[in-house]
Amino acid sequence: MTGRTHDLAALTALNLVIITTPLPDFSFSTAIFSIGACTIGGLAPDLDQPTSSLWHKIPAGSLIGKIAHPFLGHHRTLSHSILGIIFFGLLSRYLLNLLGQTILVDMSLAWWAFMIGFVSHLIMDTFTTEGVPWFFPIPFHLGIPPLAALRIKTGGWIERLLVFPGLLAVNFYLIYSFYPIYLQLVKNLWK
Ligand SMILES: [Zn+2]
Q1: 111 belongs to a structural domain
Q2: How many A from CA of 77 to the centre of ligand 1?
Q3: How far is the CA of 186 from the centre of ligand 1 (A)?
Q4: Is residue 96 part of a domain?
Q5: Apex CA 165: angle with CA 178 and CA 46, to 5°?
Q6: CA of 155: how far to CAs of 48, 147, 161, in Å?
Q7: How far away, in angstroms, is 43 Cα from ligand 1 center?
Q8: 46 Cα to the center of ligand 1, angstroms
Q9: How many angstroms separate the alpha carbon of residue 166 from the centre of ligand 1?
Q10: What is the pLDDT of residue 19?
Q11: Ligand 1 center to residue 45 CA distance, Å?
Q12: For the chain, how many structural domains are there in total?
């Protein structure tokens, strides 16, 4: 999947959690920071690609991406696995706690948002032709449906014309159907 589909899928996953989970009160800065953390989480697994959208978003990122590439392994290995979820989960928790010493944000919520984005990426990639090596280092790529020819090609017309607009529609539907929840969340921000 492309970066923008992963961004949208991460926010869709966050929306699903918002409507199904009772959330504690949080500040406006925590809300904004967590949305950012969620989209970064949604792109983070592709840091193993020097061309990843996330590398383009940081200064000199494409250069850093090329340098980091040999250390992160080939595309879709560690970062696209259960082991990767644990590794990135621990790393992001450590980094967010460090950041939490200087900025006033509820880092535990931000961490959950990051992880929701991260896992949504792996779920979305499972529907693509290449599949996902969930059980890395076991080199078996799991895909849905099992027949690779029936899966979605990254950047192909199905992704552009069906998946992306489909995810947009899901988000509009969720916000429309559950707007009292969102209204309450927004009210709580100004309490
Ligand atoms: Zn990926």
Answers
A1: yes
A2: 9
A3: 32
A4: yes
A5: 100
A6: 18, 19, 10
A7: 8
A8: 5
A9: 19
A10: 95
A11: 6
A12: 1
What's the pLDDT at 72? 61
In a domain, 160, yes or no: yes
Instruction: Specify the pLDDT at position 68.
Output: 66
Strand partners, 132: 142
What is the CA(190)–ligand 1 centre distance, in A? 37
Each residue's pLDDT tens digit in the chain (191 positions)? 999 999 999 999 999 999 999 988 899 999 999 999 999 999 999 988 876 777 677 777 777 666 666 666 667 899 999 999 999 999 999 999 999 999 999 999 999 999 999 999 999 999 999 999 999 999 899 999 999 999 999 999 999 999 999 999 999 999 999 999 999 999 988 77
Report the separation in Å between the CA atom of 95 and the middle of ligand 1, taken as the mean of its atom positions.
Answer: 22
Distance of CA 118 to the CA centre of its chain: 4
Query: In the numeric block, which tokens belong to residue 89?
Result: 């989960």
CA of 5 to the centre of ligand 1 (A): 11
In SS3 terms, 106-136 reads as CHHHHHHHHHHHHHHHHHHHHCECCCECCCC
**Residue range of the domain that includes 130:** 3-11+28-165
User: 71 C-alpha vs ligand 1 centroid, how far in Å?
Assistant: 17
Q: Which two tokens stand for residue 103?
A: 């900025």
Within a domain: 22: no
Question: What per-residue confidence (pLDDT) applies to 48?
Answer: 84
The phi, psi pair for 142, rounded to 5°, reads: -90, 135
